[in-house]
Write the structure tokens for this entry.
Amino acid sequence: MSELIEEVLIKNGLLFAFLCVGLLMWVCFWLAKHLLGNRIPGVALAIVAGLGLAFLGGKRGLADVPLFGGLALLGGSMLRDFAVVATAMGADLDKIRSAGLAGTVALFVGVLLSFVLGVAVAFTLGYTDPVSLTTIGAGACTYIVGPVTGGALGASSEVIAISIAAGVVKTIVTTVATPLVARSIGLNNPHSAAVFGGLIGTTSGVAAGLAATDTRLVPYGALTATFYTGLGCLLCPSVLFLLVVWVV
Amino acid sequence: MTIYGVALLAFCFLVGKITGTLLGVAMGIDGDVGGVGFAMLLLVVGNTYLKRHGGLSTATAGGILFWSAMYIPIIVAMAAVQNVRAALTGGWVALLAGVVATVGGFLLVPALSRIGRSPAEVPNHE
């Protein structure tokens, strides 16, 4: 009987993956709200839980367990890139104007700064090949830019996992630290919130951090942050990768 | 119709990926150079253009918005299928890269906030 059920679940792997991820996210969002008081966003918690569950498997993470094979399809590069492109629907070119010059400059500086710092850290700690350096640098932008860049350039799963983790760390640090440093970096008006969103870029971290600081600032920070991942996906696997190749 | 939105999204995605792959070949790199970025750019420009000309119907937009809403769950699934055991040795890289990039961003907020402050353009709640 249980074998029969398992067979149905394996045959319908993608759909079972929808169910598993849905349940996992429900649990994580519940924990984030009730246990952590939203101090850490449910999204970050869910991704950490995903990375944690990958330990149950091997090279392909949880997908090495036949029952969870469908996760490899759901979390594979095709659907991932498709969904990432779809998020551009929320980015309205007319809106970037309201972010102003400062917001736009902050976006470019933010992507460049995170990337360079990420590459520098990876280089210092012993990574030397351009593909790994670029992927980890991209991960320092956001946990989306990292895997998209790594996938495009053919980085190893291990390096991609590091890039996701770097992006998640950024989200968590942003969420926790923003309310603490807000006063000293002058984060108390829509203008600096737009700059902040552009510089940091992790939409979930920016939104959660600003919400903990002053909820009125959330839309301004989110406005610039929405463009950040797209810009990162455009620049990291192209211009910035070539720059790394040239430097190394 | 919903499928129009999904088809439009697929069109943008494929054009971006093909552009990225061709660009990679042209530059002698085995990979896709900025394909997802080109696809996003195409969708943003297309969407902005359509908005000025009446916009997409709710159902059509729904076909794109569904996939947009699915991206976090997909990222969670992706996290669960990575080679994390091998990545554990690189845990410090992830931690340091994430922290340093965030702190760097924080430090630049005051400097960049000085650019183009115009109270008329940006409502000020100070």
Observations:
- Chain B touches chain A through 86 residues (CB under 8 Å).
